[in-house]
Design a protein that fits this description.
Elements (H helix, E strand, L loop, with lengths): L6 E5 L5 E6 L4 E4 L4 E4 L3 E7 L4 H4 L3 H13 L5 E7 L5 E6 L4 E7 L6 E4 L4 E5 L3 E6 L3 H6 L5 E6 L3 E7 L2 E6 L4 E4 L4 E5 L3 E6 L3 H6 L5 E6 L2 E6 L3 H15 L12 H7 L4
Antiparallel strand pairs: 1-2, 2-7, 3-6, 3-10, 4-7, 5-6, 8-13, 9-12, 9-16, 10-13, 11-12, 14-19, 15-18, 16-19, 17-18
Length: about 270
Amino acid sequence: MNAHEIDYQIYGEEMQFVEIELDPYETVIAEAGSFMMMDQDIELATIFGDGSRQEANKSIWGKVLSAGKRLLTGESLFMTAYTHVGQGKKKVSFASPYPGKIIALDLSELGGKIVCQKDAFLCAAKGAAVGIEFSRKLGRGFFGGEGFIMQKVEGDGMAFMHAGGTVIEKELGHGEVLRVDTGCLVGFTRDVDYDIEMIKGIRNMFFGGEGLFYARLEGPGKVWIQSLPFSRLADRVLRNAKNYGGGGKGEGSILGGLGDLLDGDGW
């Protein structure tokens, strides 16, 4: 194996974190902002790129280009590496950014590559290459919810994704098709054919409340679906914040905001 072999345990229900156990000189890489806690003798280092062998073999301009592409996915130019430099076994933990589930992926059993939404990657054993996946289909790029660019994780070790709400894994047979809300798609294996499809019927398109398109996934391969995309959660929070003005006495009452207005809080 090229990637470091790591042990792990996932804790929690709605707000999960993953605890990774490292042997001496093993390393795990993570996106900035996901760190939770670590034992003594684990050293933190900011690295340019993902620290994989694939990245190390590139020229300096190749590394700059690779890191620059990461900006297109909304991520930082840099990643953080956590290395155990002492004796025995030590642990480092990474937390979910919002309510949902952490998905553990053994890349060696999944064809060596996962394509996922831009903010799904959490952390991985050193040796995994984290990059971007360009869409070659215009319709998918414009209407697929993730644009032309998605994230990809390649290698043969453990990697971890995060998704909102409840996550389900679907195994698609050869030629089997699954239609999914574009925001609910988390990721899929390399052999899955991903495209977008327009919802049929003028009434459904304009009054169905589900948008104009959904994702079409055709097997063979595995697909991960989330029940609560972060964009949907944020939209609902903002909508209710506007309705209630940040909360008040009318919240939860039959009159709602009108109760605040009559009580004087709405002026």
